[in-house]
Amino acid sequence: xxxVSSEFLNKNTGVKMDKFISTxxxxxxxxxxKALYNYVPASEQAHIKRKWAEFKAQMAKTLDDLEPExxxxxxxxxxxxxxxx
Length: 85
Prior knowledge:
Layout: E1 2-9, E2 16-22, H1 30-37, H2 46-60
Antiparallel strand pairs: 1-2
């Protein structure tokens, strides 16, 4: 990563930066984003980590781990037929 010392105004944020971070093509652009925009990658965010942990736990379950929901059977009262039919 090459750092060139010169002042410039970031057009997107309006923040005056004293260092320009130049990265060759094909390198990790997140270094520049962290410096300019306070970017935090998803892999470092707590709520994303928690979501993935929950997802992995759900996918690790087997049929033996799941408890079937048993619906109570409906009870029908038999009615006597009238003899007039």
